[in-house]
Each structure stands twice: as structure tokens, then as C-alpha cells.
């Protein structure tokens, strides 16, 4: 076990993942490899893949027979594993021990959600599609999770969004008006506008918006989107997905269009504009990708509205490129770190950068621990963690969480409760500094 774990950590960084089908391994003579649908990192030795998959699957089966349900988390010496069972299939994500249990489980939920959203249940996907095709899909999903989230985003499972304090409010209004205009078309339920992987405006629930953020790169024949609008139609999704973007009174009106259709597979737009139409057709002004039925024949949408939407998106892209600052303001990060999480919109605002100092790493670790504690103790509203070099203050209410670290100063402590202890002033400093970012902790 120690050898296997070490190899995987070295080759995969902070996690590994596999999908195992127990129905393929029933007798003593059945090889474990027959049940491995996918394993990442793919370069891990085959015998070590089989050893790890056999161990985890055996633990899950044992726990299922004893307690009636498979475990949600399994710990080994150097890795922890989040598990989710679906029929004979077992999804397993391995994370390093320093990642919180909550973050580990949420990462697996995101990964499984991506697969189900684009492919449906694994039993059908592996029956209808080739192993090579699905292996490529997994590479895309894992790469998406690795490249599109920082440690803070992993902890909160939040969306990347534009910093509204740095964008002209009229641009955000324009984005919302574009979506409202498209929503007047028949079958269109909701949509979102993205800019360079950031959410500009969305009418979709956070879990659906996060999946639309998945974009293929130019290396696989498609073109990475700069400014894209994804619109979901009533005929493209199962009823449970429609229910999330459609209020109950109007659900009945679209049920007829949804029944009988499998889960939608919204393709990545080869151009800057995607309209998901019945049957998966969409227009492209770049002409990339396979030829598809013209959009005007799929939905009764006037050409004038279609072209005006394209023009509006192109204009929005130009304005965003000119308006957004090239990088974070250095003065906002010189003396403190902060993170603010909106639980309603599932959006995280922070000035912590990807290039992190040891002090910044302590901020990330403390934030993750405080967040996990808040999840475990719902009645707790304030918490401060400290060690010999730094202190981090966290507070929350029903809709938001905020975290603050004063950089460059070592907290002083006399060893007994003391009003002059520097940690006492931390909440006041947090309230004052975060007001500059539009966050009111009062």
C-alpha cells in the first residue's frame, strides 16, 4: 500500500481517480483489471492500479455488507479517498491528507456531476461509447478541475466570476439584457455568458453554470472560447435539470418537449456563440466543427434577433477586454489576505494569488479548516485560528462567509486572556479592510 500510494502521489500531484465496475469481477479467477473502467494517472503501473482498485473496492464491499451502505471516505497512510457508489459502479477520488474531508468529497461530486451531465449514467455510457473515446473525456474533465480552481475554490467549490468592483456596471447590465433577449425565443429556458473562463452573467443555478464552464482546447479541433453565451433549451435536458432552471408553473409546458429525450450533451462552442438547440445543433460564425443543421431551421428564431445577439456578444467582448484591469491591484494585497464566499451565488472573491508565499499557504490552510468547522458546527458564526507566525479570522452568516489575515505581523500573546493581545483587533481590521471590496461584516 505504501509503495502504491507514493507512486500515485508522485505521478498525479495531489490526487488520483478511478471508476470501477464490480460486475466485471465476480469470481476468484476474474482479474481486477477487468473492472477498471478508467484510472488516472494513466501512467501508473498496471499492477499498482489493480492493487489500489482491489483494496478500495474490497473495503467498500465489506462496509456495504456490514452497514448496508458504502463508506463515503476511506483513509490510507498518505491518501484519503472519497467514494460514491452507483449500482455496480464505484467512483473513487484520492486526495492528499492535508485536503479537508469536505473538499475531497465535493471534488468527487463535481467530477461525477460533469460525467453524468455530458454522458448520462456510466452503465449506458460504457455500453454505447468506446473506451478510447471515454478516456479522452476523462482527461478533459480532470484537466478542467485541475486548471480552473485554486485551493480556495476547491475548498468552497465556487465559480470563477468577474470582479464586479472592477467592471463597468453598464457592461454587466448589457450581458444580462443579452440573455433576457435570447430568453424570449421559444424553448430557451436560461443561459450564461462567459469571458475567458469567467462568469459574466448567468441565469443558471451554480451547479449547471459550473458544468457549462467546461471548454475544450484548440488541440482537439475546437476553438477555445473568449466570449461565449450558452443557452439551454427545453428539449436538451432531462426533466430534473429543467426543473432547476424553470419555475414550477412553467415546467408542465416544457415536459412534453423533454420526455423521451436523453440527457443533453451541450458541445463546446467552436465560435464565440453557442445556442443549444433540440438535437444538439447550434450555429457558428467561425464555421468550425462538423456540419450541422442551420439554426434557423431548428427553432423559429428571427434572423434579426440571432444576428443582433451575435453583434451584442462581440461588442461585449471588446468592452470587457478594454475595461478589465490587466492584473490585481498590488496595494490591495500588500498588507492582508481576504476571501469572501457568497453561498447563494456560489461565487468566491479573493485577493490571494496563485503564486503563494509560506504565509499565504497558511492562510489557505486556515481558511479551509475554518470553513470545514463551520460546516460541521452550524451554530458557530466566528472563529479565529492562530499559530506562532500568523492568525486568520473567519465569520459567517446564513448567506456568506468571510476570512481575513493580516500579513507581515506576528500575533503577540501573553499566554493568558489579554485585551491587548493582537488577535483581539483582528475582527475590527477585517471589517475595515473588507469594506473596500464591497463586503460589509457589520
TrEMBL record:
Q: What GO terms describe the biological role, i.e. biological process, of this protein? A: melanosome assembly; protein targeting; vesicle-mediated transport
Membrane-crossing ranges are none
Q: Where is the CCZ1/INTU/HPS4 third Longin domain?
A: 334-430
Which residue numbers delimit the CCZ1/INTU/HSP4 first Longin domain?
A: 15-120
GO CC field:
BLOC-3 complex; cytoplasmic vesicle; lysosomal membrane
Give a single Pfam family match. Answer: Intu_longin_3
Region annotated Disordered, chain positions: 257-276
Which Gene Ontology terms cover its molecular function?
guanyl-nucleotide exchange factor activity; small GTPase binding
What's the protein here called? Answer: HPS4 biosis of lysosomal organelles complex 3 subunit 2
Amino acid at each position: 500500500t505504501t509503495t502504491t500510494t507514493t507512486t500515485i502521489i508522485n505521478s498525479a500531484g495531489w490526487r488520483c481517480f478511478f471508476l470501477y465496475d464490480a460486475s466485471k469481477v465476480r469470481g476468484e479467477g476474474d482479474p481486477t483489471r477487468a473492472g477498471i473502467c478508467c484510472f488516472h494517472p494513466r501512467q501508473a503501473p498496471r499492477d499498482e492500479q489493480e492493487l489500489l482498485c482491489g483494496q478500495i473496492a474490497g473495503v467498500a464491499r465489506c462496509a456495504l455488507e456490514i452497514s448496508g451502505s458504502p463508506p463515503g471516505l476511506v483513509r490510507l497512510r498518505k491518501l484519503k479517498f472519497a467514494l460514491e457508489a452507483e449500482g455496480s459502479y464505484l467512483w473513487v477520488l484520492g486526495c492528499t491528507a492535508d485536503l479537508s474531508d469536505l473538499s475531497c468529497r465535493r471534488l468527487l461530486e463535481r467530477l461525477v456531476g460533469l460525467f453524468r451531465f455530458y454522458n448520462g449514467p456510466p452503465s449506458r455510457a460504457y455500453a454505447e461509447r468506446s473506451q478510447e473515446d471515454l478516456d479522452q473525456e476523462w482527461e478533459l474533465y480532470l484537466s478542467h478541475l485541475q486548471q480552473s480552481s485554486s485551493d480556495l475554490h476547491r475548498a468552497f467549490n465556487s465559480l470563477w466570476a468577474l470582479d464586479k468592483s472592477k467592471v463597468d456596471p453598464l457592461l454587466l447590465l448589457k450581458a444580462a439584457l443579452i440573455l433576457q433577449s435570447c430568453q424570449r425565443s421559444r424553448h430557451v429556458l436560461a443561459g450564461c455568458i462567459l469571458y475567458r473562463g469567467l462568469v459574466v452573467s448567468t441565469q443558471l443555478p451554480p451547479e449547471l453554470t459550473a458544468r457549462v464552464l467546461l471548454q475544450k482546447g484548440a488541440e482537439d479541433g475546437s476553438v477555445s472560447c473568449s466570449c461565449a453565451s450558452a443557452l439551454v433549451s427545453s428539449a436538451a435536458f432531462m426533466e430534473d435539470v429543467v426543473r432547476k432552471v424553470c419555475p414550477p408553473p412553467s415546467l408542465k409546458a416544457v415536459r412534453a418537449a423533454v420526455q423521451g429525450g436523453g440527457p443533453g450533451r451541450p458541445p463546446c462552442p467552436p465560435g464565440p456563440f453557442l445556442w443549444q438547440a433540440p438535437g444538439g445543433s447550434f450555429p457558428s460564425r467561425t464555421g468550425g466543427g462538423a456540419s450541422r443543421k442551420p439554426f434557423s431551421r431548428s427553432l423559429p428564431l428571427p434572423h434579426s434577433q440571432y444576428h443582433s445577439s451575435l453583434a451584442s456578444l462581440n461588442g461585449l467582448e471588446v468592452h470587457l477586454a478594454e475595461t478589465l484591469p490587466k492584473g490585481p491591484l498590488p496595494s490591495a494585497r500588500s498588507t492582508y489576505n481576504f476571501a469572501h464566499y457568497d453561498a447563494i451565488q456560489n461565487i468566491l472573491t479573493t485577493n490571494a494569488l496563485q503564486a503563494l508565499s509560506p504565509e499565504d499557504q497558511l492562510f489557505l490552510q486556515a481558511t479551509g479548516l475554518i470553513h470545514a468547522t463551520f460546516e460541521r458546527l452550524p451554530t458557530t458564526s466566528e472563529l479565529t485560528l492562530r499559530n506562532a507566525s500568523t492568525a486568520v479570522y473567519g465569520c459567517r452568516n446564513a448567506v456568506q462567509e468571510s476570512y481575513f489575515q493580516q500579513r507581515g505581523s506576528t500575533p503577540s500573546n501573553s499566554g493568558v486572556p489579554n485585551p491587548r493581545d493582537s488577535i483581539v483587533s483582528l475582527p475590527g481590521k477585517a471589517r475595515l479592510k473588507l469594506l473596500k471590496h464591497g463586503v460589509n461584516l457589520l
